[in-house]
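Minutes, project check-in
Item: structure for the 374-residue chain
Input as provided by the requester:
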Amino acid sequence: MRQIIRLMVKEIKHSARDKKSFIMMILFPLVLMGVLGTALTGAFNTDSSPVEVDVIYETKANGTLSSAFEDFTGDMDDEGIHFKAVEPDKDAEKEVDDGNADGYVYVGNDRMDLYLQNEGSLESNVLKSVLDSFADTYAVASEIVQATPEKADVLESSQEEDYINERAIDSDQSVGSMDYYAVVITTMFVFIGAIIASGLIADEHVLNTDMRLMVAPIRKRDILIGKVGGVVGVLGLITLILVLFSIFAYDANWGDNIGWVAVILLSEVIFAICFGMGISYTLQSSGKANMIIMIIVQVSAFFGGAFFPIDEADGLFKFMTKLSPLEWQNHTLLTLIHAGELTHVLPTILLNIGIGGLFLFVPLFLFRKREGVL
């Protein structure tokens, strides 16, 4: 354990020794945040008016569920969520695709289907939240009625439930340009941190310390843990500085779920480091690895909304956005910060760690017999 800590400290000192690069890794994203956040203020709607959602629906459920849902749709009208029954001669999904509604809800006896125009939009997140709340409330009420039929009036009281509750978007939490770019620029530069990790192996060759490490009385696994841990510390520190500076200098909003935000960013740090090491170890050249990493980061940033918000996409463009690692981070963070939406948090964390692990351990497995530090 002591040897691992020494290796971690060594990596931190080695990274901090290049003061110019270290400072640029902090200053450049902060300047970029300020420039984009100020210049593109007009492109963001910060109006404090409530969110309005137009929904078409179709019910083919039994009388009790159908009645409960009809009452629910009436209650939601006062909250800005307007439900309208599907006309018999209309294709509901086509109506949504054409932009005539934000979503389509089908209610059956054993399921509730939701079809959305734009899954990541503010309106979609509000709609998903209230429908989840209705489904949960009705399910609990139905269980009570089945167990104790004399309490059938619980279905009546459940229809008075506040379905918006705290999960709906607070109008004061609308996304401003600085709020948006504080998040997307931070995630982009965390991903660029893969370049730091790409030099972990190559630097030992350059400094002629690889043979010393290979004959040292320390396991290769501990060398790997120590070096990765050191870079996690460096990149984590840079990320922390970016977040804190954006909060206090730019008044950026990082939400109330700061703990989950920190975990997501830490998982992206781990993903970036494993990605950088995996590419570098496979190519056995930090120069080639850095070039490939920068190309992948820039393409991912473009399709992930780092330069401008991507509200609507279809066809190949939509497919490319779904492949962008930065789209995962940005979508999850923005919906968590501004909508309190936790649905995507755990999948994003697991994706970061899982895919990062593949980038790191698959090359190590394939080339485990190759001479060198690892």
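Outcome recorded: The two ends are 18 Å apart (CA to CA).
No further action items on this chain.
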